Amino acid sequence: MATKTTETEGFVPVKRPLTLKRWFAATGWRHAIGLFMVVFSAFPLLYVLSASLNPHGTLTGSNALFSKVGLDAYARILNTPEAPYAAWFGNTLLIAGFTALGSVFLGALAAYSFSRMRFTGRRTGLLTIVLVQMFPQLLGVVAIFLLMSTIGDIFPAIGLNSQIGLIMVYLGGALGVNTFLMYGFFNTIPASIDEAAKIDGASHARIFFTIILRLVAPILAVVALLSFISTTNDFVLASVLLVDPEKQTLAVGLYRLVSNPNYADWSAFSAGAVLAALPVMALFLYLQKYIVGGLTAGSVK
Amino acid sequence: MSIIIDEDVATEEKPTRRAQQAARIAEAASAGLKAILVKIILLGLVDAIALYALFVLFAKGQWIVFGLVLAVTLVVNWIYFSPGKLPAKYLTPGVIFLVIFQIFAVGYTAYIGFTNYSTGHNSDKDQAVSALMSSALERVPDSPAYAVTVVDQVGTLSLLVTDPDGDVSIGSNDQPLQPVSNATLEDGRAVAVDGYTSLTFQEVVGRTDEITKMAVPYSDDPNDGALRTPDGRNAYLYLSTLVYDEQAGTMTNANTGVVYSDTGKGAFTSPDGEEMLPGWRINVGFDNFVRAFTDEGIRGPLVSVTIWTFFFAGISVASTFLLGLFLAIVFNDLRMKGRKFYRVAMILPYAFPAFLSALVWAGMLSESFGFINQVLLGGAQIPWLTNEWLAKFSILLVNLWLGFPYMFLVCTGALQSIPEELQEAATVDGASPWAVFRLIKLPLLLVSVAPLLIASFAFNFNNFNLIYMLTGGGPRDAEASVNVGATDILISMVYKVAFTGQTRDYGLASAFSIIIFILVAVISIISFRKTKALEDLN
C-alpha cells in the first residue's frame, strides 16, 4: 500500500494493465463518491442561483432550473420600499464590521496581558473566560432585551432599537469567545522580542501596538473574520434588539421576507441571498486555510 | 520563556523605591508625545461621554446607576492616569463590556426567573393603577365644556385648558393639569402659551387620532378623572368607572360594585378569582420553576424538548463527524486526481451563510411547492416540515449538509498530521489496512478531534438559527400551554416563550434559561474532566 502512494493514475504498471475494473477499484469509486457529494453540496446553491435569475416570483416558478434567465429579481429586491435590502446590507456590514474590529481589539488587549504579564487573579481571570465561553450570550437574551429597554428609557441612543447598542452587546460577548484563541497564539511569540524592545527603550504601548500586533496579525485576521461571520449570522439578538425595518440586519430582514415561503417573492429573496452570500463565500474560499487552521487551534487550545 | 516573563513582573514584587522610580522615569521617557496625546484625547472622550451620562442620570433621578457610572469612570481614570497597573490597563475595556452584557445578563436572567415579568406584568404598581384607571374612563354626563387648545412641545402634545371659571391650566398624558399664568387669551379662551406651539385647525385634523386618544389627568389623584377632547376644541371630564382606594389597596368597579383586591399575585383580583390586567411585577419565588415541573402543559413539552435537544446535538455531531471522516479517508489518497476540485465543492455549504442555507432549504422542502416534492419526487405531497418525525429528519439532514464540510476539513488535517512511519511500520508487521485504521489512525485522530466534537456538540445544543429558520420549531404541540413545537430545542423554546405570541412570559423564559445554564454547566464539567483542558492553564 504505502509504496503505491507515489504512483499516479497515468502510470501504468507493465504487468497489470489498467482496466476499467482496476481503475474503479483504485480511485474510480472515490470519484463516484466525490461526484455524489459535489451534487449534494452544490445543488442547493445552484438552486438558489437559478431561483434568483428567474424573473417570476413564486416558489413553484423556481422549480424549473435555469429555464428563464433575467435580472428582474435583483432589481426588485433592491427597489422594494417594504424590504429595504440595501439598508439591511449596509447595516450588516457596519454592525459586523465594527463588532469584528472591536472584538479583535478588546481580545488582543486581554490576550496580551494574560500572555505577557503575571499578576494576581490571572489564573482566575483565564478560568472565568473559559467558563464564560461555555455560556453563549444567546442564553441571556431575555435579560439583555430587558436591560437594553431600560437603558433605552434613559439613553435612547444606545438602548433598544439602536445599532450602537447592538454592537455594544456583541462586544460584551467578544472577550469570552476570542481571548482564549488569541492567548494561545500570543504565547507562541517569544517574549525575548518584548525584552529586546524594552531594553531599546520602547514603552509597553509601543511594544504592543507596533511589534506584537504585527506578529500576531494572522490570528487577528482569523478572529476578525470569525467574529464578522458569526455576527452576520446572528438572528436572535438582532431580531430582538432592532425594531425598525430600516435598522435591521440581513438575517432578520430576509427571514421576515420569507417567513412563509409559499407566499413570498421567492426570486427576490434568492437574489438577496446570492448578493449577500457572494462576498462572504469569496472571502471564505480565499482564506479557507487560515480559517480551518484557526478553528482547529481555537478549540484544541 | 517563563523565566523571562517573570522578570517582567519584577515591578510588582515590591521592588525598592529607587527601582520603582527608575522604572517610572524610563516608562515616561519611552512614551512618545504622540502616544500621550492619543491617550489624553481618548480618555477625554470617555470622560465627556461619562459626564453627559451622569448629567442625564442626575436629571432623571436614577441614583443607583448614577453611582455605578461615577464609580466606573473614577476607576477608569485612576487606572489610566496612575503609573504601573499594566494588566488593568489592558484588561479594563474588555472587562467592562463583559461584565455589563454577559455576566450581569446572567445574573439578571436569574433574577427575572424569580419574577412574574410578562405581558400584563411589566411595570410597577403605580403605573398599573393609572393604566387601569385610564382604560375605564367614561364621560361624566353633566360635565361642563372646557375650552381647549392643543399645543405641541417637541412632539409631545398637551392640552391648554380654560375652565368655565376662566382659569387656565396645561397638562399632557403624563403630566396632570397645572395652572399657567402667562397664556395669551382670545375671547376668554387661552390660545397660546410660551414654550409651546399651538396647532392650527389643519394640524388638529391631521393628528385627530393622536388627539382623541389623549387623556389628561385632572389632578395627581387618579380618582379625580381626566379631560378628553373629541374635536380639539372642547374637552369634557371623564371619570374612571374604577375607584382606587390607596389605603386598602383595592380597586372597586363603580358599575358592578365588585371589589378587586391586591392578593399578592401582582394583579387586582376579584373574590371569584378574576384578575384585572395590566398587573404589576412582583417576586414570585420558585413559582416559574414549580410551573415548569408540575404544570402538565409545560412539563410535557419541556421534557420532550430537552430530550430532543440532546438527540439533535448528539446525532448532528455523530452524523457530520462520520460523514466527514469517511470523506476524509476517501479523498486522502494521493493517486486520486482532482482532489482540490472536490475539496472546494464540498466546502461550499460551509462557506454559504448558515441562516440563508436554512431559509433556502425551507423553500426546497416546502410541502406543496418545494423543489424536492415537485421535481425530485414527481409531485408528491410529503410533509417534510410539518410532520413531527419528518421535520426532525429534515432538520438532521440539513444540519448534516451544513456541518459535514467542517468535519471533513478537520479530519483531513488530522489524518495528514499522523506520521507516515506509523502506518509503514504496522504494514511491515503485517497489519491489514482495516487494523491500521482502527488501531492506529482512529485513536490518534480522536485525540486531536475530540475537543472539536465537544465544541460542535455545544454549538448544536444552542443551534437556534437552523431550527427557527427551517421549521420554526413546528409542527406545534397542540397539548402544550406554551408556544412549543416538536422540533424546538431549548434555546428556541426560550425565544418563543419570551418574544412571540400573545403573551410574552419573560419570567418563565428566564426560568427555562436557568435550566439550560445548569444543563450546560453539568455538561461542561463532565467534558472538562475528560479532556483536562484546564490543566494547561498556568
Describe the fold and architecture.
- Chain A is built from 13 helices and no strands.
- Chain A has helices at 20-53, 72-78, 85-116, 122-134, 141-154, 163-187, 191-199, 204-215, 217-233, 236-241, 250-257, 266-286, 288-300.
- The longest helix of chain A is centred in the first third of the chain and has 34 residues, at 20-53.
- Chain A is mainly alpha-helical and 301 residues long.
- Chain A folds into 2 domains: 14-77, no CATH class; 84-257, MetI-like fold (Orthogonal Bundle).
- Chain B has 3 domains: 24-82; 125-276, Beta Barrel (Periplasmic binding protein-like II); 300-475, MetI-like fold (Orthogonal Bundle), CATH 1.10.3720.10.
- Chain B is extended, with a radius of gyration of 34 Å.
- The interface between A and B is large, with 116 and 121 residues.
The quaternary state of the protein chains shown equals heterodimer
Question: What CATH architecture of the largest domain in chain B would you give?
Answer: Orthogonal Bundle
CATH topology of the largest domain in chain A: MetI-like fold
Which superfamily, in CATH terms, is the homologous superfamily of the largest domain in chain B?
A: MetI-like
Overall body shape of chain A: flat
> How much beta of chain A, percentage-wise?
under 5%
Low-confidence stretches of chain A: 1-9
